[in-house]
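note to self: the first set is below, dont mix up w the second
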Amino acid sequence: MDEHQHGYLHDKDAFLKRLRRIEGQARGLQRMVEEEKYCIDVLTQVAAMTSALEAFSLGLLSEHLHHCVVDAARAGDDDAARAKVDEAVAAITRLVKS
């Protein structure tokens, strides 16, 4: 049996590109604080970075549901499928609370 591959691997480059963009936003925020930029401008950039992280998280969650959860369900192992769904629910709960 093949080892399970994570759902995001087929689009790994796009996920990494998003993370690099988020990393750049974090550096930009640091620079804004170092340069003592207006607090509202900093907060605007924080909101942009938060949105970028949320979009990344939702994309990763979508991949998990479409691949990991579906693969577990297709395998016919009800316990494994329920465990994957429980993982997804826990991840969604963490995202909503953050």
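second set (the one i keep forgetting abt)
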Amino acid sequence: MTPFGERCRALRTTKKVSLRAMAAALEISPAYLSALENGHRGRPSRGLVRQICDYFGLIWDDAEAMQRLADLSHPRVTIDTAGLDPLATELANRLAERIGELDRATLAEILARISNP
């Protein structure tokens, strides 16, 4: 699941909207919406994010946060470390090797460390 998919599903659950009903309202297939929520599809387009924000009545900061989650939700990431310190390359490779073994608390700790300058 991606950050965008997690938030989208949480909004649907909170509003008690079925995946089929939301997909129909957005004029997309339920399979595509499910794939977005589960991280099996890449980032949604800005237009679709706007539609989803409108559907849930998200405005201003909430809509911007939803777009930011979409931007951070590509399930297959490529990290270009060319020209960076060799430690950056090592970090990227070690993270790629071990990310599946890290628990949620550890992931949150790492994310907090790199998100706050």
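remember for set 2: The CA atoms of residues 62 and 104 lie 24 Å apart.
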